[in-house]
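Obj: model holo form, ligand = glutamic acid.
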Amino acid sequence: MATAELEVKSLLAERINALEESSTLAMTKKARELAAQGHKVISLSVGEPDFKTPAFICEAAKKAIDDGFHGYSPVAGYPDLRKAIADKLRRDNGLTWGPENVVVSTGAKHSLANAIQVLVNPGDEVLIFAPYWVSYSEMVKLAEGKSVVVTGAFENDFKVTAEQFEAAITPRTKVVMYASPNNPTGTEYSEDELRAIGDVVARHEQVFVLADEIYEYINFTGKGHFSIGSMPEIRDRVITVNGVAKGFAMTGWRIGFIAAAKWIAEGVEKLQGQVTSGACSIAQKAATAAFNGPLDETRKMSEAYHRRRDLVVGLLREIPGFKVAMPEGAFYAFPDVSAYFGKTDGKTRINDSDDFSLWLLNEVFVATVAGSGFGAPNCIRISTAAADEALVEAVGRIKVSVAKLH
Ligand code: PMP
Ligand code: GLU
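Output (holo structure tokens):
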């Protein structure tokens, strides 16, 4: 490192020096840079719907501008949005929270970070079900908590069992967090599996659950989605997180929420009141339309992801050495590529998933994300939220390139 760089680094606060860069966003940035240089990059790194936000939602945003919603919004969100969310939670999730239990934030990422800041004291243990979304462990680090990773086996579709979970609990365990459907694996925990996990929570009164349900509507099981917060015996200790990004193709609008016991919601509101204030007023009006509106377009998008899941997993399974689980939701494939670790194309040696993912980008301009940042160092993540032709082309390029490894 150059001297000037070293000096600047020493000026940054320790908490920032200790923080990892988001690997999803870092790969996306690299892919954009290569594309700007004129390379034909296929970017399957960022997990982002390739659909447009439904028109009725955009119309609500336009109306909000015309109606003059230009000022600061209430810190916890507009009352009509908080009510629309409470209604949605009752309708879809069997959760009985009122608007006063809901706090709207700038994306589900913000909601998760807020909840962790509000609940975790330095040294508290946070159990994270792995593979996990890259930002979980870093959010815990920012709160000076201790991440304890509990890994779901490939053979169990990457799911953590209730027994594994209970064995990891200690008197310092404050929170357990997971996403279902999951990013990066696409795994969906069944109702029975979540009830078994909820029974463990019921036996350990100090444990709170942070349930990330952002992929709720992208579910291929045909069995619907189960929200652990609907279990009455643990309801007061479950913080449900969701938003509009995935189900309504609204990643850039930045609206997410928590629904939780009032004292937790008030804690989040207090934090938000000092750090960001209320979320974007126009986006809130759009989100209100989304939660009150029909789900037809959401279902159509989910059907497209389902079809692409079949397409991509089928193609990936034809690549020698790739082990590919069948995702049941979200829009990712997560092949185990460790059969290629230790191999070389004569120029570059692939030691791990970081090398593999970077090599794919540099060799064949396909952007993926290494599994290491997700707590799954044998895998790479491929987003299936792209056009069929791009997906076929990308997996074809991967197949041709790995054939050069020996
Ligand atoms: N949780 C998971 C599991 C995600 O994949 C994402 C998407 N990045 C988020 C939360 C954050 O969503 P949002 O865009 O609403 O911040
Ligand atoms: N959820 C997306 C992903 O995992 C968005 C990028 C991010 O915020 O990390 O790629």
